Amino acid sequence: MLAFLIRRLLLLIPVLLGGTGVVFVLIQLAPGDPIDVLMGVYSSPEARAALREKYGLNDPAHVQYVRWLWAVLQGDWGTSIQQRVPVLPLVIEKFWITLLLTGAAALFATVLGVVAGVVSAVRQNTWIDRLVLVVSVFALSMPAYWLGLLFIFVFSVQLGWLPTGGLRSFIAEKTTLDVIEHMIMPGIVAGLTPAAIIARVARTAMLEVMRLDFMTALRAKGLSEGAVILRHALRNAAPTIVSMTGLQIGYLILGAALFVEIIFSWPGLGLEIYKSVIGRDMPMMLGLVLFSTCVFVLLNLVVDIIYRIINPRVRDS
Amino acid sequence: MSTAEAVELLRVEGLRTHFFTRHGVAKAVDGVDFSLAKGERLGLVGESGSGKSVTALSIMRLVRDPPGRIVGGRILFEGQDLLALDEAAMRRLRGSRLSMIFQDPIAYLDPVMRVGDWIAETLMLHRGLGRKPALTEALRILRLLKVPSPEEVVHAYPFQLSGGMCQRVLIATAIATEPALVIADEATSALDVTVQASILKTLTELTETLGTALLLTTHNMLVVRKACSRVMVMYAGRVVESCATDNLFQAPLHPYTIGLLNSVPALESIGQPLVPMAGEPPLPTDTLPGCAFYARCPLRQSRCQVERPPLQEVRPGRWSACFFAEQAGRMRHAAG
Asked: What separation, in Å, do the N-terminal and C-terminal C-alpha atoms of chain A show?
């Protein structure tokens, strides 16, 4: 187990170098720079040159990258050019806000996905199995940015049940309930696609287990159908479901959150990435990419560890 | 069929289990009658597809529906008709009064459950024990089965154990609640010959000590000879011969049994060539008006093709479903 951990952590290094490197190159290729965004086109060329010099933007790209890397290794993540605050505390603050949303979405996706998957496996080829299939295909083919707008239109604009976006209301007291109200729609929109994927995987994994011989042996022991399915079949299907769920949660944090946060103005990592790209805010962008890549890789590591714990055939060999 | 003074435990009457498939109705079991006394060991012999396993599963009411369904008959176990019970009542009997062991022991254990917990699960369910006492009891039963280092075995997963060891675990589970009947469906067929012998010995000794009846299905005549006092031969979903095991080996009274005996090696026929049976059994979806063995039978007459021979007591304690049972008896002698 220890060797496995060390190997996986060492693998983090090339992944992080690659991720930040690609972002760096892409930004260099994009037109415009943070100074244009910051000062506008009508500022004097001298002032802009001075500011460029100050942020080291005149140096060759590879020098800038190595300088950034060296600073990060010493714990200095730089300062946001746009917001003029240190990058790391800001990223961490945004991370917690994103985690709140993705946590809710992941919980929603996992519970809904596993329940739907198990039910449609147990009731294979019945109307409920088909219903789950239809809903899954719908959820999979609906992009989050479209579904989000639809939700806002129906539930906020037409029905007025839920706020259109943001983390909390401006006027209301800062209550937990207020935050939860703001979480419902983005949580569902972000969680629907992962729920559909988890449901499909859970169904397949359950069917795979349910056709095995030991199911007959369990019934011969006098176990009820519920115990056979939940205590044994689901337990056997768990490793497959857990690895897919872990992947989906990673996808939620990095992928779905981006669209959903922009649509529902959820002030998390996704919205911050969007703002830093628009503002060509290199230190902020690199910090965000570095941080979320770390989170993604560590999350996968945790999933792999759980997989090994619940699957004795991998653990003990 | 059983001796009059023995207490009857199980009586199967006119059991018919059919499978409804795309290619038609497969009459896997089509009118099987037999009874089993308390503590008796009965062998159910036949080729694959003869209906012996389906008979076993029917008694447990574990035939998968769809495609299979018990379409007729009665299964009287300890006086009550199992086919009339609701599912909850049947569940209370499974694993407690009647239990089952299977052909491929590793495949019949939960791959991610420690075998100690597997045995304990039955005890927790039917005896209402807590997990700790159930595990202690599981350990005691494994010791009873003379399993080497049982303290380690209870903590192992099935994939860490040999096939023979897994079968001992399944046997331990089956007898944990001291049931009245254990059904062993091809329980030794997937094991090495040496392991087979020791599993068979364990099974017979245990059922003897506990007074448990055993219904053993197998395609292996020698297994029956070692373990069972009485034997039934099945062919195409029906019983074709039934008698005491010794009688069957000395003087079979059905041409199919003779063919079966000629095709297995035995000590008394050393030096004689084995005679494989010609032809194939009929498809289970075929509907034949006459004897199912007609196409392969060396004694067949035109009558056999149109009229089905019933299972009759042709000699005291000897039942055969052949119009020419006496000729069949002489045929074996001629061959031997």
From this structure: 11
